Amino acid sequence: MVAVNGEESALWSAVLDERTLVLTVPESAGCTIDPTLSGVDDAAKVVHVEATSVSDGECAANLFLAAKELTVGTDVRGYAVHVRFDAG
Description:
This protein is mostly beta strands. The protein has no helices and 8 strands.
């Protein structure tokens, strides 16, 4: 499950393995998303990610999904992913 700003998201998804998080995010031409790992809560089994929108001017209407790979220092299989997203 991926929660974005506290709400479950149908557009964002995650695949977690031993030490890697592959986050699939919605982007468009001219507007990409830059995610960074902000922490892992092993007690709650949650991976925390900060994401910001990076714009090169006008965002196009051609929405597509892009995979972003983040390295995690611990086994995160079975963890939830919480994203704090700043659209800018």
